[in-house]
Request: fold
Amino acid sequence: MDKAIFDKLLSATKKYKIEARLDAGFDKLTTYGTGGKIALTLFPDSERKLIKIMRLLNRVGVTYVILGRGSNVLASDDPFDGVAVVTTRLNRFVVHKNVVIAQCGVSTVALASVLAMQGLGGGEFLACLPATVGGAIVGNAGCFGQDIKAIVQSVTVLSNGHVKRLKSEKCQFSKRDSIFKHRNMTVLSVKFALSPSTEETVKKKIADMRAKKSATQPLEYRSAGCVLYHDTVSVSRLIDEMGLKGYRVGGAEVSTKHAGFVVNIDKSTSLDIYLIIRYLQRALLDRYGIAAKTEVRLVNFKEESNDLFAKRKE
Ligand SMILES: Cc1cc2nc3c(=O)[nH]c(=O)nc-3n(C[C@H](O)[C@H](O)[C@H](O)COP(=O)(O)OP(=O)(O)OC[C@H]3O[C@@H](n4cnc5c(N)ncnc54)[C@H](O)[C@@H]3O)c2cc1C
Reply:
């Protein structure tokens, strides 16, 4: 990073009272526990500070990545000569009747337990995601037939330096996708509308979902959930069908419990995981003509295009 820009960013973080670290790495900020050091990592703790720093980052034109809990991010092992903005300190929310407004860094697990206590239904799946609200919105996260799209009323974003509110219909939610994956927008907060239920019913649904998750997914290992997806086909089933469960590179392998997961089983590097992802994409394309998209966000890899294989077929 240009020294003048770096100095400018550092002095801005002092002025705005944003914690800045020069020694952080993706290994401590992602659920995979892998990835290189980051030149500058920022931890804004209010929406006002997040807005100020995002405006500045866009103005100076530096490479940056926003991180929630890093549960859908695979960052390369190389040093990242850019800025990571971590949102987890923006963790306030308000509940009014069946409506909840949550800042982007609110933990989905914490939110789910509040919804349960309030007897509000429709967001039970949030308890199964090791995520922030912002990250869950970007990837339209969900499981067991529920997804975040169904409970979103509107999303407040920073776009081109302006704060805007997008109604749910404008967010272009689809399978593991939204407008926020394709446009340079920072999700600031989200307004949810839940359905009336009872504490007992919601807690029971959460317990059932969690039991199903731990019975079918390798939660004992570090991962980023399912790494690939396709709009119409179950990619996990096809990986299983090809006999690729247990396929290993270095310290990473295709989970033997759930073929959609690539897990860090023994001090894996990001490259080990990346090579498996690309191998699976190639195998799916060659055997079935399926162009699977990467669900996990690849950061600081030379070839970051999710459409690398899609370009060849379909
Ligand atoms: C064990 C395990 C199980 C999982 N199970 C599921 C599952 O069942 N269903 C599912 O959908 N996912 C699942 N995941 C994946 C992951 O939890 C979700 O994708 C989650 O929504 C990511 O949230 P996050 O806060 O960690 O986002 P991150 O991983 O930090 O970020 C994801 C993307 O969103 C961007 N982003 C984050 N916050 C903002 C913001 N405020 N503004 C703009 N961009 C932002 C990031 O830059 C990145 O591109 C699982 C992961 C793990 C580890």
